[in-house]
Amino acid sequence: MAWLRKVLLGGELDPSMVASAERSGFVTIDEPLRQYSSFFLRLVIATVIATAGIAADSATTIIGAMLVAPLMSPMLGTALAAAIGRPRRTIATFGLTLVGMAVVFVVSIGVTAIIPVDVDLSTNSQVLARTSPRLVDLIIALAAGFMAALASLRRDIPDAVPGIAISASIVPPLCVVGAAFYEGVPGSALGALLLFITNYVAIQIAGAAVFLLAGLGTREFSVMEGKARETWYLAVALASVVVVLLLGASSMGVIHRNDQLRKVQDTVAAWVDGSDYRVSRLEFENDALRIEIAGSGRVPSAAILDDDLADAGVELDELSLAVVEEHRILHG
User: Fold this and answer.
1) Does residue 269 have a pLDDT over 70?
2) Distance from C-alpha of 197 to C-alpha of 125, rounded to nearest angstrom
3) Could you tell me the pTM of the whole model?
C-alpha cells in the first residue's frame, strides 16, 4: 500500500496540505465569518447565474456558475472528516451541505419567479440534460470526486480544479429542482434531485477512497477509530446501492424512449414516402405523438400511420396530425 500511496500523492503526504484541505472543506473553522460569508455569497451568486442560464438555455452561463459554486467544499469536507475520524465535523459538514441545498432551492425559485424569460421545461436542453440521470452520470461523478479529493492533497495539480468544477455538476441540478418545483413539474424536480444525490454519493465514495489510500485513516492523522467512521461508510454504501438501482431504472427508461423515438421516426418517414408531403414537425413525448406535414395533393392516411406504428411496437395514447397545404406558383 505504501507504493500506491506514493504514486497517488507523488511522494509523501504533506501535513500542511491536509490542514489546508480541512479548512477549505469546513472541517476546521478558524475564521467563521470569513469562511461562511464567502461560502454563502458565492453560493447565492452561483445560483442566480445558473438559474438564469437555465432560463436562457445557455450552457456557457451555467459553466460560469459551476466555476463559482462552492458547494463541493463541504461535500468533500464530509468525506475528509469521516476519514480522519471526526464524527461531529462529519455531521457538521453534512449539515452545511443540507443548508446549502436549501439556499440554492429557495434562491432558484425566487429567480425563476421574477426572471422575464419563461422556463419551458419540456424543450429546454439544460433542463432535459439534468432530469434523466443515468449510470454514466455516476461514473462521471466518481471520477470528478476522485480528482477533487486528490487535488485537495497535492500542490502540483491546481490547474485541474476548474475542470473538476465543470464535470461535477453540483449547483445546476438543484437549480433545476427549484425551477421545476415553481413551474409545477414534480417529475423533472425529482429527476434533477436524483442527479444531485448521485453526485453527492459519488463524491463520498471517491473522497473516502482517496483519503484512506493517502493514509488519513492511520493513527498519525486519525482522531478516532471505530463505529463512527464505520456507520458513515455503511450509510454511504446503502445510499450507493439505492442510487445505482434508481439510475439503472432511469437508464433503461432512456434507452426505451430512444428506441421508441427511432421507431416513430422510421415509421413516419416510410409513411410519407411516395407522397407529396414532408414532415415539418414531429414531437413524441409521454406516449403522445404530434406530427405536422406540409405539401400538396392527397394526404396520407392517419389511420394507416396509426396501424403502422402499432405494428412497429409503438403504443400511443394520442396521435395528432396537422396538415399544411403548400401551393406552387409558376411564373413565366
Assistant:
1) yes
2) 21
3) 0.80
